[in-house]
Amino acid sequence: MSKQEFKHVSYLWDENVAASMKGDEVQLLVYRSNLLGADLRLTNYGGGNTSCKAIAKDPLTGEEVEVMWVKGSGGDLGTMKREGLAALYVNRMRSLKNIYRGVEHEDEMVELFNHCIYDLASKTPSIDTPLHGFLPFKHIDHLHPDAAIAIAASKDGEKITKELFDGKIGWVPWQRPGFDLGLKLKKCLDENPGIVGIMLGSHGLFTWGDTAYESYINTLQVIEKCAEYLQQNIQQQPAVFGGQRIESLDAEKRKEQAAALAPILRGFCSSQTKMIGHFTDDDRVLEFVNSNDLSRLSPMGTSCPDHFLRTKISPLVLNLEPQQDLSDLNAIKEKIAPLFEAYRNTYTEYYNTCKHPNSPAVRDANPVIILYPGVGMFSFAKDKQTARVAAEFYINAINVMKGAEAISSYTSLPRQEAFNIEYWLLEEAKLQRMPKPKPLSGRIALVTGSGGGIGKAIAKKFASEGACVVLSDNHAERLAEAKAEFVKSFGKDAVAACLLDVTDANTIQQATKEATLSFGGLDLVVNNAGISISKTIEDHTEKDWDLLYDILVKGQMLVTQSSVGIMRKQNMGGDILNIVSKNALVSGPNNAGYGSAKAAQLHLSRLNAAELGKDKIRVNVVNPDAVIAGSNIWSGGWAEGRAKAYGIKIEELPAYYAGRTLLNEIILPEDIANACFAYVGGLLSKSTGNTINVDGGIAGSFVR
Ligand SMILES: [Zn+2]
Fold first, then answer.
1. How are beta strands 376-381 and 468-473 bridged, if at all?
2. Which is the catalytic residue, given 594, 656, 657, 679?
3. pLDDT tens column, 346-382
């Protein structure tokens, strides 16, 4: 098959690149793996593994031995490097057969893979290692392409595979990956000499070749053929998924509904652990959720283990009309609450029915995938990346169901098999090895004026402590720069950005909507945006006065108001932090507008704290003073004016201000960020209506 003939997969092999790696089978393996992983139609994120076998020198004996390099535990083919491989002595791995005690003891073999390691620096071997090890081929690909799984998960999968490939692809029925499945693959090959691959029931595909290229092209050809077969059948169907049951809302409306509903769903999903949300209205999702077959297919559950480990076996389908009026919070909650109740009960029942005496404790019973017909799909997980990837996996599952239904009928894994994977002790051990969550993980923060200065420092602190952050600023360029910087430091999943002018209620709505659409809700709001004007009473114009009060006081009020609306929908409490100023407490000349507005901000914070306590929403204040580094306030003449007033140079200001403090300290944006984190990091969770001065110590601003 030539490059142009592939329609359903991408042929990416570059002969020149491959030629430069000639003779280095491991490098060619990495190259091939990256090409395979780059096309999500070939395998899902983190799914599948590849291997090669080559002769190498034994470091102990100097003799030539056969070594297998195979993708190690974890990692993704698309980005895998040499370090992502495990290297094992082939003869040692195969000799484990001699001590193998049978399928009920196969988990103990995993430990023994470590005794077969050739390269001591290599990655931990994965559970799929014996699947590659017992096959004799030099290069092997094991992938989870939707097109192959659709056949593998259909009722007549075995028959279809046999007919479609003229007996050239073998079939091994579903079995949990492990030592025993490795032996089954070898048996299938022995009984069917000449096959070019093996389909694993409800799971995926094995294909191989004598060289890296031969394996690559074989893999592509097999998947192309599966995909072509599916497409023909899908086209011949009278209707996909039994035909369309309802119409989608238009794109704008879908986003509106999703943004309005997400915090309510997040509240339910976070009954045990705070979750982050993801929303998509991808065409493939809409086709499925709007279909007649949704009610039949969705409860059946996903098939490939990779899918349901990420998505839970089945999704929750909402009982709302696409147009549903979401303004009556209590009415909506009353409608949705029984759905969650039923979902959790079903999950607990599944656990209780399937559990073994040594099974790990039951995990969070809330749904991961939530389908809203006419609108789209929500997913909730411990962080944004996990939520996004869960959504991608459910789209894989939709593709599989669509294909399987077009050629035969879709079958899901038996519940007990699914349970045995989900609560597999080896899977549990993997979970236990995960790093502990950071203090702000699962929380969503909006910081106003975070394009620079104090705001940016606060956002950075929150992101580094695990929060998802919505950056906002009224200066587009500053905002874009800050976003780029955050994406680089914290990854694209953890950050969103929105232009925000705190005097404009519309842009405030946009910013809070950004938080709910990007992450599912809002937990931490920092009112930081501000300006300062220092003038005598005579010089103070009405315009100055309005500007100060609009930005500082009304801005704080409007952002708080909009955020509280979301927090109440979630019913998970929340934190409002107001960055005020020492000037709220200390009086001085030429500061009537700014100082009184700051005092209003302070008292407004206390009033809000008094009103919001019943919702577990805490409102606290940080009073910075004389933070110069990176601040917007200090540009535009203010610093110059102050320096002139004190008879010093601008660059002498920090030391001058430090000299006025009891501790003789220069105050940095990071100091303010740390104070904010102190409020929300967990240790001060029973404190509201409070003020922390971060000013190096100024007796005049001691709180009384
Ligand atoms: Zn697999």
1. unpaired
2. 594
3. 999 999 999 999 999 999 999 999 999 999 999 999 9
